[in-house]
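Fig. S4 source data, part A: sequence.
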Amino acid sequence: MANEPGPHTLDAEAVRTWSSLALAALGRAREDIDAINVYPVADADTGTNLYLTAEAADRALTEAFEKAASEVTEGTTGTTSLSEAVRAYAHGALIGARGNSGTILAQLLRGVADVLGAENADNTENAERTGDAAADRDRASGPLLARALTRAAEEAYQAVAHPVEGTMLTVAGAAARAGAAVGAAAATAADVAGAAYDGARAALAETPGQLAALSRAGVVDAGGCGLVAVLGALWQALSGEAPAEEPVRGRAVPVPSTPQPCAEEQGGPGYEVIYLLEASEEAVGELRERLDGLGDSLVVVGGDGLWNVHVHVDDPGAAVEAGVVAGRPYRIRITHFGDERRRAKAPRAQRAVVAVVPGEGLAALCGEAGATTVLARPGEAPAVTELVDAVARAHAREVILLAGSVELRAAAGAAAERARADGVRVAVIPTRSAVQGLAALAVHDPDASFDEDVVAMTAAAGATRYAELAVAEARSFTSAGICQAGDVLGLIDGDVAVIGSGLSETAEAVLERMLGSGGELVTLVLGPEVPDTLAAHLEAYVQHGHLAVDTVTYRGGRWSAPLLIGVE
C-alpha cells in the first residue's frame, strides 16, 4: 500500500504500514541517534530506546491483526478496525516503553489513539446501525488526524513533570501546530502528516539554540530526531512517497568530538528507574508528587489503570517503594548510568552466559558464577526485550543463553536473532528448569571453542532430570490422579508424578522415582519459606538409600518454587 503512488486514507492498514516503516527508520538511525544523545543524560541509548519501544508497539499491532484474522466467524470479516489498530499500537508502546524518549513516544501514540480510537469506534458503530458501509467510515480524515496530533503533544507535555524546550516535546508541539494549520481546511490525512513532518524537521533544526547542552555539543536533540523519523514514516505510509532524506544519515548530524560526562559527572541522579504500574489515577497523582521530590526526568504515561513510570533518582529503592504504595509495580528495571557508560567504553568480552532464573537466590548464585541473569517471577515471563537487554549487558562477542523453561524458548530464540543482527554470536540452550541451567553453568569453559562449550553445556543440561514441588491451588485432574486444593504436587520432567499431603513425604517419593534410574548428584533448591531442616532430612534420606550419591543444596530466594530437584 505504502509503495503505491498517490495519497492514501488513514485506516487500520495504513497504521500497520506506518508502524513497519517507523520501525525500519529507527533501526537505520539507531546508532547515529545514540551518538548524539547528550540530554538529559549522555548515556548513548536514545536511539536504542526509541527502537525498542517502536518494536514493542509493532509487535502488539501485529498480534492484533493476527488475532482478528483468527477470529473469523459467520457474519464477520476478521479484519482489524482503525480504532483497534491505534489502540493496540499505543498499548504495545506503553508496555514496552524504554527510557525517557521511549516513554514520551508511548504517550504521544496514546494521544493519537485517544482521538482516532474514540472517533472511529463511534463512526463504525453508527455505520453498523444505519447500514452504511463500515469500511467507508473506518478511516480518519485530515482534520481528525490534526486533532490527534494536537492531543498527542498536549498529553506528552502533561506526562513530563518539568517540560523543557529544545527537546522531543518541542518537536512534537511544532508538528502538531503545523498539522493543525493545514488540517483546518479540507486537507487529506496525507497533507496533515506531510505538514507535521515538515514542522517537526524545522523545529528539530532549532533545538540547539533552545538547550545549552545541545549547543555545547553541537548536536540536535536525539529524542526529537527519533520523532522526526516516526512522523516521516507516517507521511510515507499515507502519501506513498519516501522522505527526501533520513533524519540522521551517516554523520550528517554533528556528533560530539569529546566524550560526554555520565550522570554523576553532570551532577544528576545516578540511576534510571522504570516500571509498569497498576494503580488508580488518584494514586498516580500522589506518586508523581512523591517521585518528583526524589529525582528528575520524571515521566508518567498511560491511563485506565495501567501506567509506565520513568524517573532518574539516587535512591532507586525509594522510587520502587513509592510504586508499591501507589499500586502494583512490575517489570522493574534499574540502570546505573555510570555502569552503562563504562560498559559502552569497555572492550567486549569474548564469551558470556545469560541465564533466566526463577528466584533472587538463584540469580545471585549464577551471578557469582559469572552469568548475566534475568529474573523470572511467577506468572510474569521475561519479555523478549528483557532478554535482549541481558545479552547487551553481557557485552560479549559470543553469548550462551540458558532459556530456563519450555515457555521461554520462543522468546529466547527471538532475542538471539536480534542479538545476531547486532553481530553477536548467540547459542540458545533449551534448558527446561533452573537445575538444568546450574548443571550447564557448572561445565561452562570459556577457554574452549564456542561450539565445544555449547555442546558440553547442552549435554550437561540434557543429562539432568528435573523435578519441582508445587502446591495445588484447586481441585483438578492430573496425570497422577485427582488432586485437591492444598495438595503437594511432585512434577518430574514437567508432568505430575506424585500427589502428597506434605513437602517432605512428596519430595522423598519424587527422589525415589528419580534415583531409581541412577544418578550421581542430587541438587536441591529450597524456596524462601522452606526450612533448612527439610534439606538436612532429604540429604540424609538420599545418603541412606544411595551411598554413592552426593547432595548439594542452594537457596532459591524470593520468587522461587517451594522445592526444585535435579538429578545428574
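Fig. S4 source data, part B ends here. The longest strand covers residues 295-303.
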